[in-house]
Specification:
The complex is a heterodimer of chains A (152) and B (763). By secondary structure, chain A is an alpha/beta fold. Chain A has 6 helices and 5 strands; from the N terminus they run βαβαβαβαβαα. Chain A has a 5-stranded parallel β-sheet with strand order 2-1-3-4-5, sandwiched between helices. The longest helix of chain A has 14 residues. The two termini of chain A are 12 Å apart. Chain B has 763 residues and is α+β, with helices and mostly antiparallel strands. Chain B is rod-shaped, with a radius of gyration of 80 Å. The two termini of chain B are 95 Å apart. Classes of the chains: A alpha/beta (152), B alpha+beta (763).
């Protein structure tokens, strides 16, 4: 199940952090993910500020037990308070979150946004609506899951 | 000193004539003198030659007569008688007989020949003694005899083989006895035994020989007769002073004797004092070598040159008169010639001085007439050219004066030389106010301070050859000018340097570019406004597309899920999915409504008017009153609120939104309070709406005005309200911003609105 390129595949115990201000979108996304991978623990925050609090374990997310560090962040670009791109930059500027994968999931397909996201070292740029096929392909590309997991 | 033409002519004439006359006179006088001297000398020479020939012939006669006498029979008879005791054996005549016959012959001879003073026969018996003579009375006196006396040593004692020779005695000076000088010729007589027996003697009276010679000499001067030893044996005419003779005569004798010249010879010599001109000729004794007479003519040089001097005097007088006459004539002629010239000069001078025309002389002739003609033509041409230059100048001045740009000329130190009409318009000065002033008066202080340096650098660079002119020349530059009223005006200037007669002038062409600058500013303002608008539009489009897409994605997503659930027969989530779809659609409506509202704001509904902020606030307050009462929010409105200019309804919306927004974010505030008032920052009127609610962190203060920006998703709203407020304020030409309370409590929205009517954008 593992190989040299994928030392730590995504598993159910490792949460995914979903940063999405739109509750409907969040629900759609989670339901897509359920079909695609077996994860129980998807944490959802509604703005950039909360995302940073969670990732850097500050404020209400200070406890590492209740707020385990995710392996993957699904990040919307248009967020209240702190913009998705700013969140991305903060993540990439931190040594602590070095191994964190960040997928941008947004309604925008503007070239400017795509360019800026990749310039901010996003692992993947996914345009809504998200299909399970797109999502698992992205996970494979990022080396987070193997083909057999996807097949399960 | 400048000499007039007449004076110059006269002086030149005088110099030339005097020099010429002097030269001619000098040569003529010399030649005349030479001629006179030669003539005089020729006459003297002829005279001397004649005398000398006469003297020589007298001596020859004496010689011949002595030989004649010695051959006479009485002489032979006397000698024979003496030898034969007083009787001649041939005819028995006694010695006395022969003596008587000889005496008769001698007397007769002497009578016939006046030249001889005394004729005699002397017997020799140890000494000579006179035996017979021609006449008693004529016998020489004692002093003369000393020179004349015969002595035995004078003759050979026996008959010489070649025959007896005549002996000439020394010359006896007869002056002591009042007689003439004499010379004695004697011929020895030998007896049968060939011994000296006696001598025939003839005394020649030189006075009779030189008779013509001793007549008074014509004119000054005289003649001297000298013997071969230089003794004077006769003289006539002027008496030559003794010392001169002592010095001069030996020279003459020496010259004539030494040269061994014939009797024809003669010479000329000046006396030692230079006053006499002396000539000499020699008369030789025939058959008596080494014996001669010298005839000397002495004539005072003054007498000799008298005629030449007279000639010179006469010549000088005449030439003097001629020169004076010539000078006067030349002067008059020169004046006559020069007058038209001076008239032309006067005319040219006064024309050159002030252009006034003096009539040119009409009487001129020859070259002067040509000159007058040329000057007249020249004056005509100059007038013509002047007129042309004047009209040209006026033309150019006209161009400069009415040029569309200001034209200012300064000299090398910055002094203003010219200032045209347009420059007057630009700077507000009139020309006379700035002429002779420094150009710096037209510059702002900072620029004026540097100007002298510019000029200096220009001159320095310009002095060194091959260097480019100062950079401030030629290039088009933008500068500021200072007007008469002190205000500054933006100018565009080109400066050109003009070299004129070794001095540099600078001409600046200035253009007032304030209108253009204003236009440029307006343009750039418009441009940036446009750019801002563009960016806003872009942002708007982007935001709208994102936010409108969101509910569509929701609808699409849940519709798919719904279809899938229905397909799989899982009906548990159909209700919630439909609710999601419904909600998204509603949401979409809401967004579209707000967008329409926002787009409506772009066009103000009512024309601008003066609006009292107090009224606006009151209206706004009333609209939101219901919500405020729910939260028991206290609204405090300042008593003094200004009047602004704008669209009343929109302004009501501004305050309504701000009050609503403040009330929404009161959080857990126990005594919520909204304060509306005005403050003045540096004369700027700032309206504010302050609350004591949750406040907005500084980092998000800019974002809250963005379209669809929502800070708190828990509070109801679309994220359009503040964007709307901002848009209305900006449409009115005002600004809006957030100020945070330092304590972090509450928010203060500040805004400015124009008090004056502003041209409201309808974009």
């Amino acid at each position: 199940m593992t190989d040299a390129l994928n030392p730590k595949p995504l598993d159910a115990a490792t949460p995914i952090l979903l940063v999405e201000d739109n509750a409907a979108h969040a629900e759609l996304l989670m339901r897509s993910l359920e079909d695609c991978i077996s994860i129980d623990d998807i944490r959802c925050v509604r703005d950039g500020e909360m995302a940073l609090h969670y990732l850097f374990r500050s404020g209400e997310y200070a406890d590492p037990v209740s707020s385990p560090r995710p392996k993957l962040v699904l990040l919307d670009l248009h967020l209240p308070k702190i913009d998705g791109l700013d969140v991305l930059r903060k993540i990439r500027a931190s040594a602590e979150l070095e191994s964190l994968s960040v997928f941008i999931v947004t309604t925008s397909n503007a070239a400017k946004d795509i360019k800026e996201a990749y310039a901010g070292l996003a692992d993947c740029f996914l345009v809504k609506p998200l299909t399970p096929e797109n999502f698992s392909m992205a996970l494979e590309d990022a080396g987070l899951i193997g083909p057999e997991v996807s097949a399960s | 000193m400048k000499l007039t033409l007449a004076a110059q002519f006269t002086a030149t004439f005088l110099v030339v004539v005097i020099v010429t006359a002097g030269a001619v006179a000098y040569f003529v006088e010399d030649e005349a003198k030479q001629f006179l001297v030669e003539q005089e000398q020729g006459s003297i020479r002829t005279q001397l030659r004649a005398h000398s020939a006469e003297l020589s012939s007298s001596i020859e006669n004496l010689h011949r007569d002595l030989h004649l006498l010695s051959g006479l029979p009485p002489i032979r008879g006397m000698v024979l008688a003496d030898e034969n005791d007083g009787v001649d054996p041939r005819d028995s005549s006694t010695a006395e007989d022969w003596q008587a016959r000889l005496r008769t012959i001698l007397s007769r001879f002497q009578t016939a020949n006046e030249d001889y003073a005394h004729a005699s026969y002397q017997r020799f018996e140890e000494t000579f003694s006179e035996l017979v003579c021609g006449g008693e009375a004529t016998a020489p006196a004692q002093p003369e005899l000393e020179a004349l006396a015969l002595k035995a040593e004078h003759f050979p004692m026996s008959r010489p083989i070649e025959g007896a020779e005549v002996r000439f005695s020394e010359i006896a000076d007869g002056s002591a006895t009042g007689r003439h000088a004499m010379i004695r010729g004697s011929l020895p007589i030998y007896d049968s035994g060939e011994s000296l027996a006696g001598a025939v003697v003839l005394d020649l009276d030189l006075g009779s020989v030189f008779g013509g010679l001793f007549t008074p000499y014509e004119g000054a001067g005289g003649i001297l007769v000298l013997d071969e030893r230089g003794r004077i044996i006769g003289a006539s005419g002027v008496i030559v002073p003794e010392p001169i003779l002592v010095e001069t005569l030996p020279l003459i004798i020496e010259a004539l004797g030494r040269n061994g010249l014939a009797s024809e010879s003669w010479g000329g010599i000046a006396s030692s004092d230079g006053k006499l001109s002396m000539h000499a000729a020699r008369a030789d004794f025939v058959h008596s070598p080494g014996r001669f007479f010298v005839l000397v003519s002495a004539k005072p040089r003054a007498a000799l040159f008298a005629a030449a001097d007279q000639l010179r005097q006469r010549a000088l007088t005449i030439s003097g008169v001629l020169i004076a006459l010539g000078a006067v004539l030349t002067f008059i002629l020169a004046r006559f010639l020069a007058r038209p010239i001076s008239e032309v000069t006067h005319a040219a001078r006064s024309f050159g001085h002030d252009g006034s025309e003096v009539p040119l002389p009409q009487r001129a002739t020859g070259e002067v007439a040509v000159l007058v003609g040329a000057v007249a033509k020249m004056i005509g041409q100059v007038k013509e050219r002047n007129a042309k230059i004047l009209s040209n100048e006026a033309w150019q001045r006209n161009i400069l004066t009415h040029a569309a740009d200001g034209v200012i000329t300064i000299d090398c130190v910055g002094k203003i030389l010219a200032f045209n009409k347009k420059a007057e318009e630009i700077f507000g000065y009139v020309e006379i106010e700035v002429l002779e002033q420094n150009i710096k008066m037209l510059m702002p202080d900072e620029q004026a301070g540097r100007h002298d340096g510019h000029l200096e650098r220009y001159h320095q660079r310009h002095d060194s050859p091959d260097s480019p002119a100062g950079s401030f020349v030629r290039e088009l530059r933008e500068v500021s000018g200072r007007k008469k009223d002190g205000t500054l005006v933006p100018l565009e200037i080109t400066i050109s340097a003009v070299e004129d007669a070794g001095k540099t002038c600078f001409t600046g062409i200035v253009r007032d570019v304030s209108a253009r600058q204003l236009a440029e500013e307006e343009r750039s303002q418009l441009l940036s406004k446009m750019e801002a608008k563009n960016a806003e539009l872009e942002r708007f489009t982007y935001t709208v597309s994102h936010d409108l897409k969101s509910p569509l994605i929701t609808i699409q997503g849940f519709a798919e899920l719904l279809a899938k659930d229905i397909e799989t027969g899982d009906h548990s989530r159909i209700g919630s999915d439909l609710a999601r779809i419904n909600e998204a659609a509603k949401n979409m409506y809401g967004l579209l409504d707000k967008l329409l509202e926002l787009s409506r704001i772009g066009r103000l509904v009512a024309p601008s008017e003066d609006v009292a902020v107090a009224d606006v606030v009151e209206t706004a307050h009333r609209h939101v009153e219901g919500r405020l009462d729910d939260g028991r929010v206290e609204v405090v409105v300042a008593a003094e609120l200004p009047t602004v200019h704008g669209d009343r309804q929109r302004l009501v919306e501004v305050f309504q939104n701000l009050i609503d927004n403040a009330a929404k974010f009161m959080g857990g505030q126990v005594t919520p309070r909204i304060e509306i008032g005005v403050r003045y920052d540096d004369d700027e009127q700032v309206l504010f709406v302050r609350d004591n609610g949750v406040g907005i962190p500084e980092a998000y203060q800019d974002r809250v005005f963005g379209l669809f920006e929502r800070l708190d998703l828990n509070v109801a709203g679309t994220g359009v309200g503040l964007a709307l407020v901002k848009r209305i304020v900006e449409l009115h030409g005002g600004r809006i911003w957030i100020e945070s309370d330092p304590s972090g409590q509450g928010t203060c929205f500040c805004l400015t609105l124009p008090g004056q009517p502003a041209e409201l954008s309808t974009a």
